[in-house]
Specification:
single chain, mainly alpha, Serine Threonine Protein Phosphatase 5, Tetratricopeptide repeat, 7 helices
């Protein structure tokens, strides 16, 4: 399921990542903040601060919806977040977990497919 809040935040993220003025993302973020009875985003923030707000909004908006892993991976923050989480997280992390293995049946069925490098 794709929620409208996800679309708004993805669009806001796209604007910031494409080096558009940070203010272009404000109405998108504020629409979500308004629905949650939060005050509007402060004006005059840098692109980095707006991106930090988008990350924060995604974390709280999609709590327990299974999107956090993919968000962190997309932002290149997965390793940092796992290693900062706890002792078990530091012991668990391996770069190959950034990607899922391709099922062997898919590889057997289509010889043009090769396994993701960390899993071969």
């Amino acid at each position: 399921m794709l929620r409208f809040a996800d679309i708004l935040l993805m669009y806001a993220e796209t604007l910031v990542m494409r080096k558009k003025p940070a203010e272009d993302a404000y109405p998108l973020i504020n629409r979500i903040r308004q629905r949650a009875n939060l005050s509007p985003l402060a004006t005059g923030l840098s692109s980095e601060a707006v991106m930090a707000e988008i990350r924060h909004q995604r974390m709280i908006e999609f709590y327990r919806e299974g999107l956090r892993f993919y968000d962190l991976r997309r932002w290149g923050l997965l390793q940092q977040e796992i290693k900062n989480s706890d002792k078990e997280g530091r012991q668990f992390y391996n770069n190959k977990f950034q990607y899922f293995p391709i099922p062997q049946n898919e590889i057997n069925t289509n010889p043009a497919i090769t396994q993701n490098p960390p899993w071969d």
